[in-house]
Amino acid sequence: xxxxxxxxxxxxxxxxxxxxxxxxxxxxxxxxxxxxxxxxxxxxxxxxxxxxxxxxxxxxxxxxxxxxxxxxxxxxxxxxxxxxxxxxxxxxxxxxxxxxxxxxxxxxxxxxxxxxxxxxxxxxxxxxxxxxxxxxxxxxxxxxxxxxxxxxxxxxxxxxxxxxxxxxxxxxxxxxxxxxxxxxxxxxxxxxxxxxxxxxxxxxxxxxxxxxxxxxxxxxxxxxxxxxxxxxxxxxxxxxxxxxxxxxxxxxxxxxxxxxxxxxxxxxxxxxxxxxxxxxxxxxxxxxxxxxxxxxxxxxxxxxxxxxxxxxxxxxxxxxxxxxxxxxxxxxxxxxxxxxxxxxxxxxxxxxxxxxxxxxxxxxxxxxxxxxxxxxxxxxxxxxxxxxxxxxxxxxxxxxxxxxxxxxxxxxxxxxxxxxxxxxxxxxxxxxxxxxxxxxxxxxxxxxxxxxxxxxxxxxxxxxxxxxxxxxxxxxxxxxxxxxxxxxxxxxxxxxxxxxxxx
Length: 503
Hints:
- The protein has about 500 residues and is an alpha/beta fold.
- Helix content is about 30%, strand content about 20%.
- It has 13 helices and 18 strands.
- The chain has helices spanning about 55-65, 65-75, 80-95, 160-180, 215-230, 270-280, 285-290, 295-305, 315-320, 385-395, 410-420, 425-435, 440-445; strands at about 5-15, 15-20, 55, 105-110, 120-130, 130-140, 145-155, 185-190, 205-210, 310, 330-335, 350-360, 375-380, 405, 435-440, 450, 460, 465-470.
- Strands 3, 4, 5, 6, 7, 8 and 9 form a 7-stranded mixed beta sheet that branches. The chain has a 5-stranded mixed beta sheet with strand order 13-12-11-14-15.
- Helix 1 (about 55-65) runs antiparallel to helix 2 (about 65-75) and helix 4 (about 160-180) packs across helix 5.
- The radius of gyration is 27 Å and the shape is flat.
- The chain starts with 6 loop residues before the first strand and ends in a 35-residue tail after the last strand.
């Protein structure tokens, strides 16, 4: 993936669209105002003040936390490479979606009185009322007068969570538009069609009509908006009671100082049990030990961490390893996904493999770097990398032997897609999927747990010798009760590998 990861629509025509990576240098504008290098003519958005409740900030508030919303409004949450990649994909989808509304006008700011006459579609229209601002992707005239708001999503809307977020998003826009006095007659989401196959098998976009179905979400926005705007006006971010979201919080400053190993880091703890432990105010491993909600894998984690030595269920691990058949192939794929699939036969957000690493271990051979054979493939150029990758893979993997992976779901999905794309090797890829052996299960099942060292040791060495570690500051409710935190189900401590690289 290019470092600047910017994308552009190369062309839109009767044969569909073409996507290309944008040049590293910013696009320049000619005397007529058009942009060179394939970038859009859209004017640059002016940043809004941190006290404005925008659509993006509202969604952060309802899906993440009010604290993250506060930091986002001040530009202190920097998107990582993956986030920026998805944002670029979304920009392309929004640009292409306008082709579905002929005769539309790009506004890019507050509309004029003339533009508010419902005669033609409007794009990127900004409405502000009180301390709330929304930019509407598409406003199109309703058949009976008034307007229909169309929210463009770069997702395929196949998951329940994505459909819920879309409803909350559109509901907030409808709430602000109604307060601004806009005669709104309908609402819909325009999203990518998961059944579309490039370059033209089916419609690229699908629409979901939400007219009359947003009452609950609009009421939610009506209740949240005053609180959210109040939070944004504060000089300091709010401190929140710990929850299961703590481990994924992107805030630059934590609310609380907790032990390195606590209820927050217990692997794969059922959320309902977590909530009960939080209410009981148990934080440290000592307080959690022996709790009725803990399973053997949790006790093993506590044992390994406290002892500073790995926990290994030798007999169970040995039984798991006995399933392996030589030669062993340690396989790891790397893949990229596009909202607008650029390669023939691919669909929106389909994972396209472009690289693999393969270590081959024969029975009884030494396991040094020089003795273990290594094969690899890396797609070069701008073409579809799947065929050359598939051709090389069927040469590198023999007809027998276990294929060792970490997270078999990912590798299995890649192999099944290759099987469908290249029927001439169908039997080979089907054989590969049956021979997958997932080493991650050993850790998921708690059969092996390695200790993770504390970031702050129990005793620290300073200029005057050893001193105790700083006291842990435990969170307290407003009434003074001490309480707990959260854990992510896939948060594994002591990630020990048998080979290959984790995707």
